Amino acid sequence: MNIFRLSGDVCHLVAIIILFLKIWRSKSCAGISGKSQLLFALVFTTRYLDLFTAFISIYNTVMKVVFLVLAYATVSLIYFRFRKSYDSESDSFRVEFLLVPVAGLSFLENYSFTPLEILWTFSIYLESVAILPQLFMITKTGEAESITTHYLFFLGLYRTLYLANWVWRYHEEGFFDQIAVVSGVVQTIFYCDFFYLYFTRVLRGSGKMTLP
Amino acid sequence: EDDKIPKDEL
Fold first, then answer.
1. Mean pLDDT value across residues B1-10
2. Phi, psi of A200 (to 5 degrees)
3. Which of A74, A123, A124, A207 lies at 20 to 30 Å from A182 by C-alpha?
4. Which chain B residues contact residue A57 at CB under 8 A?
C-alpha cells in the first residue's frame, strides 16, 4: 500500500458518499445518470467476487463491502425511492454499446480464461467507460449541479491518483498490471475534458457548471 | 499470460 493508492481509495469513497448524500438529502436524483450508477454497481459486483475466496487485508475486505453497499444503496435510491425525480429522458446513453464491446474484449484479452479472471477483466474494462452515461447526460442537459461536479472531481482524482500509484509500484516493486493500467489510462482521459470545465467554471464560483 | 499479478487493488 502507498499514499497514492490509499488517497485514491479515500477519494473514491468520498465521491460515492458525496453522491449518496446529495440524493438522500435533496430527495432527488435529478441530473444523475442512473445508468452510470448501475454500471458501477456491476463493476463492483463482478470485481469483488473474491470477497469470500481471497482474503487480502481487513482494509481490502471492509472497503469492498462498503463500496458494494453504497453502490447498491445509490442505485436503489435512484430507481426506487426517488424514481419520480429520475430524468430517464436525459439519461439516454445506450449502455449496450458499452457492455457488448467490454464483454467481448474481456473474453479476448485477459490473464487467464477462468470465470473469476474474466469477470475481473470485465469489471476493469467496464469501469473505464462506466462514467460515460453521466458525462453524456451532462452534455445533453448542458449543465450539472455543483455537487454533481464535485462527485465527478473526486472520481477523477481517484483515477489520477491510481495512475500515480502504478508509477510508484512499478518503480518500487516492479509491479505492472497491464490490463488495469491501460484501462485506467483510458478512464482517466475521459475525465480530462471534465477537469478543464471544472477548474475553469465551477471553481470560479459560478456554482452550476454550464456547458458552452 | 502472466497471471501471477496480485489482485490487491480495489
1. 75
2. -90, -20
3. A74
4. 8
